[in-house]
Predict the 3D structure of the following.
Amino acid sequence: MLSIPDLIKKKRDGGQLSDEEIKVFINAVTAKTMQESQIGAMLMAIWQKGMKPTEIQTLTREMMSSGEVMSWPDDWKTLMVDKHSTGGVGDKVSLVLAPALAVCGCKVPMISGRGLAHTGGTLDKLESIPGFQVHQSTEQIQDILASVGCCIVGQTEKLVPADRVLYALRDATSTVDSPPLIAGSIISKKGAESLSALVLDVKFGRAALYKDVQSAEKLAKLLVSAGNGVGIRTAAALTRMDCTIGRCVGNSLEVMESLETLKGKGPPDLMELVTTLGGVLLVQTGLAPDLTEGRKQISDAVTGGTALSKFQAMMEAQGVAKGTARSLCSARTDYYSVLRKAAHQLELKAPADGVVVDIDGMDLARVLHHLGAGRSKSGEDVNHSVGAELLVSLGQRVTKGAPWLRLHHEDPTPTREQIARLENTLTVDPKAEARPGPTLVEKLLPESDAFIL
Ligand code: IUR
């Protein structure tokens, strides 16, 4: 049996770790018998030398079984689904998709994260709703799935403890962006949820982890293979992430936009993502015969109000007072009677007549991060009320002086430089023709007859 330093050396020199060696590594991480310096060295060796598909499969499986693996009643087993996104600006898909899938007959134990860097994650968004409790035990999750069909919760203490250790050290050793480590981390957690189907939203573009579609596709293939390797029917969508998803960025503003979407007034780009990702999951579970039908079922649930009722039930099951949940879901609610409004709003004005040809989502998010919408260190608070509403869409004609962005801010107030940066995120072309905004879904993996876009 190789010692830990020998294992590190083997990977450092480009060797392929055996199943037994990966098991030893993950067991030592979980049992905390390996020094942090040794774990860091192994992470860097993996970052540098990579892993073969079989090593990634084993890494994922061993990480998955480092803690509790959830189990579900037999009659749910083909219906358990989840979605994972590699992260985008204004990405509120989960808030709309989870209840829509539950309406269509799925069980959705959506385990989400908090945001690190430019904007909040799904849990931060939901925590802007007074009373919403993201921490639920496995037993509570099962109860909510039985009564409602969906929940959106944080990772429980018992799920994939190896990932908690590795993720913190990846952050500290600049090894976050290693494809095998990303695959092991994401898929082990989905495996521990005992899903039957998973869809991955792998984003590419200016405001995504990967800037070009080729790199995103490489990661997507790795994730799809790792997911199928642990017995989950896994598919991926490669989606464009240059501007923002929908028109709102910032935690409570995104909750409002999600609720408006569930009231049938969603922006087309958000609806495209929700219906496509949901449609894929309905095909994978056999609840829809093809993508066209799957998308229609999801779209009907969102526009017909049934997904809104599910969202209301989910909020109540996760601790929101009945009156609060009812008020947020009523047709003509004043959202600010429930959600906190930032102390200040500032409208920016279009610099010229023309057509909006670009909005830089990444730069917008960076400024919002500095104004308190995101966090720089794990554990930091976010300000739920900070954010921005786009008052225009890509392809739309604007006139000089018309408001195009409403910034919601508190303390710190934006500096002149930050306002200039926000102004620069907008490009107006006086000569361009007005046109609908771009579609976001570029490609589905695996490419098959079931998934024709
Ligand atoms: N989310 C995860 O759960 N794991 C990762 O490695 C990344 C995002 I990057």
Remarks:
- The mean pLDDT is 96.
- The pocket of 5-iodouracil is lined by residues 176, 182, 185-186 (CB under 6 Å).
- The CA atoms of residues 93 and 366 lie 21 Å apart.
